[in-house]
Amino acid sequence: MDRLDNTIRTYAWGSTTAIPRLLGVEPSGEPQAEMWMGAHPGAPSRTARGTLVEVVEAAPERELGEKAVAKFGPRLPFLLKILAAGAPLSLQVHPNLEQAKEGYADEERRGIPVDAPHRNYKDANHKPELICALTEFDGLCGFRDPLEAAELLAGLGVDSLKPYVDLLHAHPEEAALREVLTAILTADPEEMRHTVTAAAAACTRLGGDYAPYAEIAHHYPGDPGVIAAMLLNYVRLQPGEALFLGAGIPHAYLNGLGVEIMANSDNVLRCGLTPKHVDVPELLRVVRFEAGDPGVLRPEASPDGEEVYETPIDEFRLSRYVLPAGTGVHDLTLDTPQILLCTAGAVTAGEFELAPGQSVFVAAGDKAEVSGVGTVFRATVIV
Length: 383
Description:
Blueprint: E1 2-3, E2 7-9, H1 18-23, E3 34-38, E4 46-47, E5 50-51, H2 52-58, H3 60-64, H4 66-72, E6 78-85, E7 91-93, H5 97-109, E8 129-133, E9 137-143, H6 146-154, H7 162-170, H8 173-186, H9 189-206, H10 211-219, H11 225-229, E10 232-237, E11 242-245, E12 251-263, E13 269-272, H12 280-286, E14 300-301, E15 306-309, E16 317-323, E17 330-331, E18 338-349, E19 352-354, E20 359-362, E21 369-380
């Protein structure tokens, strides 16, 4: 078992207070957006034996287990994060595995540098992800029913939104959503800025269901993503609730603190709410134009106290243990690699005392006993 020393990423949308509050330290004044736990080469966790990338590369079957290496290759398949949104993240989708492989190979053939700002595919992997709320957590996830989106847009009383309202009424679900998103993202930029400004003023005036979009517009004035966001389901998670974001599902995190886990990939296609590159044709190829309930997940409890967030993904499995006083020792030993993260209380994991925000890596087959009073998240894989 290795204690992890993890990197905090200071992206502009991060909260200045949420991660310091979790860690029990004074805020630095700069936004702290994500704390990464894993073996991603961009910011690998550090251990007494070197970075987690170096530890895994030195002996992959010893650290990950034979089954995990046979299924996923000699690398840790997931990345675990604490995510703290103080402002909306970009509206985005992720490709499926086939799309990622094709897109990566195409950009490699065309000689586009991996760090180029207009590059879409940083690797050949998909990026399904799960976010579990530690505080109230606001987000956008998946398309609304087109008629509900039409009603929301019509309620603003902005004349330049009427063509979108008409399109949402005039076509079957998939065609309506595709045509409207395409129209929003390809509109004349100056005309769209005027539309977004008028819509933002109406959202501020009306409040209620429109309040989240007024807040989005405050952070991204004139951005077409403000209108695109109104096509999506607004979700407020309570602590312990989660969202699974599969391939092609448009989404954005707006505000709150959560534990996030994902396949080990950087592939993001942006729809808006960002100054970064938006590749409209590739985005439209990847988006799934399906309306539906966002599907809030609540954990399934097992007899040993493990609460599992079920997803259709093998690269990661997230669960938690809420440890009350007097429960003794829990044996969490597995034949797969694990990261154990404390998010509340005081927990002992093997020889290490863990306070909120502290974590350990457990190699496959190594003894993993936890005790104390608090909450522990467990990240592993399914083999």
